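Morning!

This is the sequence you dropped in the shared folder:
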Amino acid sequence: MPPDARFCHKCGKPLFELVAQDETPATPVVDSVATPQQPAPPPEISFHNAVAVRTALLTSIVGSVLWQLPISPQLVWLLASLTLVGFLAVFFYQRRTGQTLSVRSGARMGWITGVFSFVIALILFTGLMLALSDAQGFAAFQKEMRAQLGQSQDLDRAMEAMKEPGMMSIAIVTGLVMLFVMFTVFPTLGGVIGAKVLERDRA
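The structure's back. Tokens below.
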């Protein structure tokens, strides 16, 4: 028989055992590499941010004490204290979270604080209007205004005009608009200043 024969050429008996080979290709083992997780982005400054809302509310309460202090000139102190409120809101938020705020985020933080400050001022303004609705309360307010501004014919005409319901309504609407602009613009400015100054300190 030929040396490479596998079977007997007479009876067909195999000359040696055949080893079955697995024809299925081996699946390569791939080591799974864990993908590093990206850090979560910092929360956006908005009314949905609970930390920002709490910080703005507490800062506005502190600010309501500041801007009612009898410091002359009263209007200048009011604007300065509102600006300071926005700055403090950014400072307290960054200290609590460790997050450095951009100028845009600082402006938002200051604006939210200004909204809460406006709500507090609105409550005080409503109490003043209720006091002025009474004749004795209006007379006391008129006396106090004359003591602060002195005797003036323009003041007397303004006081007489405010006794009319229509003029009183116009004064209330005008005062609310001025309050909202004042109590939101200056804290927003303070938030921008706070973000710029504190970002420079951390650099």
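Headline: Helices lie at 50-66, 74-97, 103-132, 135-149, 153-161, 165-202.

More detail when I'm at my desk.
O.
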